[in-house]
Design a protein that fits this description.
Chain lengths: 111, 116
């Protein structure tokens, strides 16, 4: 059974600081790993998807790395902004369709 | 192309009542997934459906919960005789076909169920 853990559970930083969010998973036999953003009362927005054969993905200020052998992924957000305040979820796909989620890291960026 | 739609967005029920949650997948999507998010926890897979078929319901509680995705109309997640522990956010996701490793599931805004 795949277990996904996200550390820290919450993070508060001043605007402009870089963010580092961690995700670990127990079973390295994965199809892909995905980072989502969840805003209060809203659905999930996919940020980055890293295939199992890849080491990282980048989109704008976001960069996600994947070390499948050690069961770890890190999401970096450069030069944080108040609009980055949200909960960030890590999800691992271990078969054709089932996603296993971490509990999330709630980020607050102070202006 | 409208996204995944869920209704109601908020639902309040008293213990013992029934809750019906609806999900309309994105246009062209024939695969639907339901997830539940309990307070302070991550989303947990409940069930995977295709039109008129339940493919995997391994995450569904054995009693009181059922799901369907009829040929016409939205997917329905039904909870009978709700209890306070059913209070959670229920998310629906859809995809166009059995996913390859390159594809993602598209999530709806969720239904927040509160059982009094």
């Amino acid at each position: 059974k795949q277990e996904v853990t996200q550390i820290p559970a919450a993070l508060s930083v001043p605007e402009g600081e870089n963010l580092v969010l961690n995700c670990s998973f127990t079973d390295s036999a994965i199809y892909n790993l995905q980072w989502f953003r969840q805003d209060p009362g809203k659905g999930l927005t996919s940020l980055l998807l890293i295939q199992s054969s890849q080491r990282e993905q980048t989109s704008g200020r976001l960069n996600a790395s994947l070390d499948k052998s050690s069961g770890r992924s890190t999401l970096y957000i450069a030069a944080s902004q108040p609009g980055d305040s949200a909960t960030y979820l890590c999800a691992v796909k271990s078969n054709d369709y089932k996603l296993s989620f971490g509990a999330g890291t709630t980020v607050t960026v102070r202006a | 192309n409208a996204g995944v739609m869920q209704n109601p967005r908020h639902l309040v029920r008293r213990r013992g009542q029934e809750a019906r949650l609806r999900c309309s997948p994105m246009k062209g999507h024939s695969h639907v997934y339901w997830y539940r998010q309990l307070p302070e926890e991550g989303l947990k897979f409940m069930v995977y459906l295709q039109k008129e078929n339940i493919i995997d319901e391994s995450g569904m509680p054995k009693e009181r919960f059922s799901a369907e995705f009829p040929k016409e109309g939205p997917s329905i997640l039904r909870i009978q005789q709700v209890v306070r522990g059913d209070s959670a956010a229920y998310f629906c996701a859809s995809s166009p076909r059995i996913e390859t490793f390159q594809e993602t599931q598209y999530f709806g805004p969720g239904t927040r169920l509160l059982v009094l």
